[in-house]
From TrEMBL:
Protein name: Uncharacterized protein
Ranges of compositional bias, category Acidic residues: 41-71
Comp. bias (Basic residues): 79-93
Region annotated Disordered, chain positions: 1-93
Amino acid sequence: MIKSHLDWIQTSPATLAEISFPIPCIGPKEEEEQQQQQQEQEQEEQQEEEEEEEEEEEEEEEEEEEEEEEVVKEQQQQKNKKKKRRRTKTSST
């Protein structure tokens, strides 16, 4: 198998550069572009996280407000019941 492979290499018109994989060369321009892309991506991720946090805070605030409203309604209902009880007590006597 090795011998057949060596024979193919010797008879092949392809050069060693064509056979081997090209090694990417990163110059200063490409490096700068990569850094910019990475920074942009990080900024986008940070913005998304901040937006998610804001949404969560808003949802929590809304839930708290709803709970407070429910508590106030319950208190009002209890007051109304007490008033009705007082009225019935005074009217019955």
